Amino acid sequence: MDNAEPKKELSKNDLFDRWIEYKKIIHRTGRKWEYREREVWWCAIGENVGSEINGKGRNFLRPVLIVRKYGTLFFGVPLSSRMHDGIWYEQFRFKDKMQCALLSQAGSMCAFRLHDKIGKLSFLDYLRICDSLSKLILKK
Asked: pTM score, two decimals?
């Protein structure tokens, strides 16, 4: 018989508080990584508002594709293992698993948020995601 306490679900405010504390650590430690375009990294996305994508776990991590690097900032696209359809998403295979690029959640991020490199996307998948992102932004 299992005597463990059931895991308590944290409230949104508790998650915000935890994220703010972790964000302070990220800012203070400011690790500078060697990273390149086309790479996929675990990234501290955080706990966000409304329908913005959140990170998961105690470090609020989510895989992110580095689309463009500029100094200590990069333009990244969060990824999900959940498949979605429509112009806001692009599906692809990465490390033998289907992934979905969440194009509507793309944006600039500081490299201090990067945690661990996962791998590098194929050149063709990278071009396809960049093309879809461009069409979405430019409404082509």
From this structure: 0.87
